[in-house]
């Protein structure tokens, strides 16, 4: 891809993860991700959490600009927004695949690179301890076995002493139903909601996991779904589910079942019902004057 700096994955496991990515990487998937970003921005009201200092010079060092990394950067749209609001910052994006990233020459000049990186692999030596802020969003499908700590430790290696980690995530386990009329029948949504209630319980304890990994002052900000965005978020989630059914689950019984579920829930949503999923943002800081080493 023209204008994109590549850092090749370090093992065949990286390529396997890239091939087995649960969602799509085509134009429809990119469109969904870009629309999703704007709904998140309207919900949160920020890109970088307001408790994270971002004024120049660097909040945690003597450099003249702060460095920010976005892990799982997707289409690069979060980076583009931050680059515009923080012109003094230097930004880099990381993902297992750069297929959805635009050429750098089309973006603000303070976005320095997009690099391929599998978060389960050690980052290149030159990136360790480089960033004042490391951001990640929606790594839900990346976390293995309900344990986010390996992902946290890996992202910590990118942080400078005193740097901040920000992780934005869906609190899937606390999803709930929203109806315009309580009498609307929603059997498909109720079945899905029952499944979601046992999914991703680690998200609510993300701050605790960060502190167990050695970060300090971890705290969580929670955001209930805004009613005026509920239908838009739900439609976006249905598009995500259909994406999964047509990619990773294509030509499988699970994929066929998911497509049927999407069609049924869409029909129910047209009558005035949706499933809402709360959002949360967890931030924590690396201890000052200590090296951040990835735990083995």
Quick structural summary:
By secondary structure, this protein is α/β, with parallel strands linked by helices. 33% of the residues lie in helices and 20% in strands.
What would you say this structure looks like, in words?
It is a single chain. With 296 residues, the chain is an alpha/beta fold. Helices cover 33% and strands 20% of the residues. Strand 4, helix 4 (149-156) and strand 5 form a beta-alpha-beta unit. Helix 2 (27-44) runs antiparallel to helix 7. The longest helix has 20 residues, at 227-246. The protein is globular, with a radius of gyration of 19 Å.
Total count of strands: 9
Rg over CA atoms, rounded to whole Å, is: 19 Å
Strands of the widest sheet, in order across it, are 3-2-1-4-5-9-7
Would you tell me the overall average pLDDT? 89
Biggest sheet record: 7 strands, mixed
Structural category is: alpha/beta
Distance between the termini: 34 Å
Helix content range of the residues, please?
25-40%
Total count of helical runs of at least 4 residues = 8
Please state roughly what percent of the residues sit in beta strands, choosing from under 5%, 5-15%, 15-25%, 25-35%, 35-45% or over 45%: 15-25%
Sequence-ordered SSE layout with sheet pairings:
Blueprint: H1 12-19, H2 27-44, E1 67-71, H3 77-85, E2 90-95, E3 111-116, E4 131-137, H4 149-156, E5 159-170, E6 176-179, H5 187-196, H6 206-212, E7 216-223, H7 227-246, H8 253-269, E8 273-276, E9 279-285
Parallel strand pairs: 1-2, 1-4, 2-3, 4-5
Antiparallel strand pairs: 5-9, 6-8, 7-9
């Amino acid at each position: 891809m023209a204008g994109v700096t590549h850092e090749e994955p370090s093992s065949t496991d990286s390529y396997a993860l890239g091939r087995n990515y649960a969602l799509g990487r085509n134009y429809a998937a990119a469109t969904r991700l870009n629309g999703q970003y704007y709904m998140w921005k309207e919900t949160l009201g920020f890109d970088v959490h307001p408790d994270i200092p971002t004024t120049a010079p660097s909040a945690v060092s003597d450099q003249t600009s702060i460095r920010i990394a976005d892990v799982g950067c997707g289409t690069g749209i979060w980076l583009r927004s931050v680059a515009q609001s923080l012109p003094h910052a230097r930004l880099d994006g990381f993902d297992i695949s750069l297929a959805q990233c635009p050429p750098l020459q089309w973006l603000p000049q303070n976005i320095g690179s997009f690099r391929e990186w599998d978060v389960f692999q050690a980052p290149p030596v030159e990136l360790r301890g480089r960033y004042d802020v490391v951001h990640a969003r929606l790594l839900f499908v990346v976390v293995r076995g309900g344990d986010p700590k390996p992902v946290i430790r890996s992202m910590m290696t990118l942080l400078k002493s005193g740097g901040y980690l920000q992780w934005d995530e869906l609190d899937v386990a606390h999803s709930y139903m929203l109806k315009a009329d309580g009498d609307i029948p929603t059997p498909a949504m109720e079945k899905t909601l029952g499944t979601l209630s046992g999914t991703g319980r680690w998200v609510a304890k993300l701050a605790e996991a960060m502190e167990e990994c050695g970060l300090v002052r971890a705290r969580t900000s929670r955001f209930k779904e805004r009613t005026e965005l509920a239908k838009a978020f739900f439609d976006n989630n249905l598009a995500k589910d259909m994406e999964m059914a047509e990619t990773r689950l294509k030509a499988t019984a699970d994929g066929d079942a998911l497509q049927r579920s999407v069609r049924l829930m869409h029909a129910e949503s047209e009558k005035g019902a949706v499933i809402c999923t709360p959002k949360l943002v967890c931030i924590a800081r690396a201890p000052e004057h200590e090296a951040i080493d990835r735990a083995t």
